[in-house]
Every structure is written in structure tokens, then in C-alpha cells.
Amino acid sequence: MTTSTRGAHRTPAVLVLEDGRIFRGRAYGAVGATFGEAVFSTGMTGYQETLTDPSYHRQVVVMTAPHVGNTGINDEDMESKKIWVSGYVVRDPARVPSNWRSTRSLDEELAAQGVVGISGIDTRALTRHLRERGAMRVGIFSGQALPDEGTMLAEVRQAPEMSGADLSAEVATTEAYVVPAIGPDGEAVPIGTAKFTVAAVDLGIKGMTPHRMAERGIEVHVLPATATVDDVYAVEPDGVFFSNGPGDPATADHPVSVMRGVLERGTPLFGICFGNQILGRALGFGTFKLKYGHRGINQPVQDRTTGKVEVTAHNHGFAVDAPLDQVSDTPYGRAEVSHVCLNDNVVEGLQLLDRPAFSVQYHPEAAAGPHDAAYLFDRFVKLMEGQRA
Asked: Which positions are annotated as active-site residues?
């Protein structure tokens, strides 16, 4: 991605899709050029959590909600230390943010972090185009000296595709760190005294995930994506967690190998999003790229173990290819699909029947919401309690 200085709302900008369709609007955030995979998010709130989700690395996010930026930006709702999206597309940006927690505008934050965006385009038409044609490469260009259309299209088509992209190590922590458990009084529990210890492999983890575990008395040791099986067990974990993250799961051979080592030892295991795809591969299932993915905080999923339907938060462009209506034999015992998306029957969760391991494709940490799936962290705690017993 290349960027320059902050642009004014009247600066011309152009969005160019790899199939040649062009949208013209105004610069939003930084002025310059950026490239990525064009995807759309259906959430009407939570744009700050979306922007700072590492799973959006190398993606240009199109917001389907027409009015964006009305609550500004604060320092409490970040899911990581920076904005990860490659570009941002909105129809009608808020002129003035209005929220008691806001400290600056969304436009200012995008510009400060060098994120090129575009506003004033027909995002409904763009979303319909992506639904019909599928997610594709895109470029946003802004400034007075815009290239000609042929040059812009050629640059877009030279950008790397998401299929085959190995991105986890680009967003994960490089040094291990500890998130202490939270006691009944709301204070951090001294390191080494928590009820449970979890080794969390960071493939692009969101900040709220270890916090949800800490709320349940778990001390979380967050490890780099390059962590080995020995690194995982060096923290003497009661459970192991594999996080969300960007990229094509078909490239994630190292995390798959580590997960198989965990499965062989029978340690309670929980995976979210990319972690679900890693579990699928570890069990012998394939993965595939969805036409336009699931992104938003309003996706209906059924928990087949209870029959309950949840409204859930999603951000994934790949899915596990596993049989929906039968139990499968794997090297680690029987496995079944535990959750399914009610929009398109995509696999949204897996569980082993003979070992303490499960995963979901969506985001139960629910930042910015909803909270229907928070019980999954309790399910993880019960697995660790059962193993200890």
C-alpha cells in the first residue's frame, strides 16, 4: 500500500475493480493509492472494531451501512494497536462525530494512520456487484494527479490475490505476552495463581478474545504464530487456543502441525475463525474460498448441539469443507459439524466427539457485538474442568 498526506473531502478519488468497473467519489482519510481484496461488511455499528481487526489485513472494506463515522474514534474500542484494513469505502461519512467517548473523527484517524479511503460512491451498487461477481482485487486512487483508467486497472491486476496468501505472521505478535486473569473484584490476579492457564496461538488475535477468557479466571499466554508445540507446552497449559487471522488457511501448514501436536496430547482445545479452519485441516478436511464471504455482526448461526439460533459476528472469506449431516472419522476420533450458517449452510463450527476439542468460524468475543455466543468461552472452561477432574 502507498499513501501520502491527509486529503480533504473534496479531493477526487477513484475506486477501480479488477474486472474494470469504476466508481468515482471523494477522498476519505489519507490521499494516495492502496490495493487489496474488495469485501463488504454488513454491520451497522462497530466500525472501529472492524478497522482494527487483524483479520482484515490486505482487504479494502466496503461498509453497506450508508452513514459511517457518527460516533468518532476512542482509545478503548481498539482490537489491536493499529488499523489493519488496506482501504475503506463509505457512502456518507459523518460531518461531525457525536459521542461522549469520542476523542477524534474517523477521517482524522484514517489519515493519521495512512489509510486511503473513498466516500461519496454508491456503496449499494458496489455491494451488489461484489455479491454477483465475488470478492476481487481493487485499488483506490486519490489526489489531483490521478493516473488514467488503463494505468489504474493494470496496477490493480498486478496486486497479489488473497488465495494462496500466508499472512498470519505479518499481523501476529513477535513476542509472547501474558494477559492475567481477572478476579471477582475486577482486579488482575497475580501471574501463576489463576484457576486455569491457556496457551493462545496468535494468528491475528483480537484484543477482546483474551479479555473474555481473563473474565472467566483464565491466565492467557499469547504466543507468536511461529510458536512450536514445545513453546505451547512450556507454559504448562490447561487448554490451548488458536485465534482468528487473515489469509488462506491452505497455506497455514505450521499452525496445522502445531494443532495436531495438541490433539495428539488430548489437551482441551478451542479455535475461532482461522482457528476453525486450522482444526478442519488438522482433522483432514479441506478448505475453500467463499464467493464473497461473511462479514458483519448480524449473521444467523445454529448451534446444532442445542438447536439454538444465534446472531453472530463474522469476518471470513474461507470456509471448511466438511460433511454437514454425518459424523466423520478422523485421525483423532469422530468429528462433526457443530454450527452452521442459516444463510448458506456454510460450516460455522466443528467438534470432536472423542477428544476435548471444538471450534467456531465466527467471533464469540463479540466486539462490537452481539453477545449471543459468549457461552462458548464457558464451554471451553468446562472442557478444562472436565480434563482436570
From this structure: 273, 363, 365
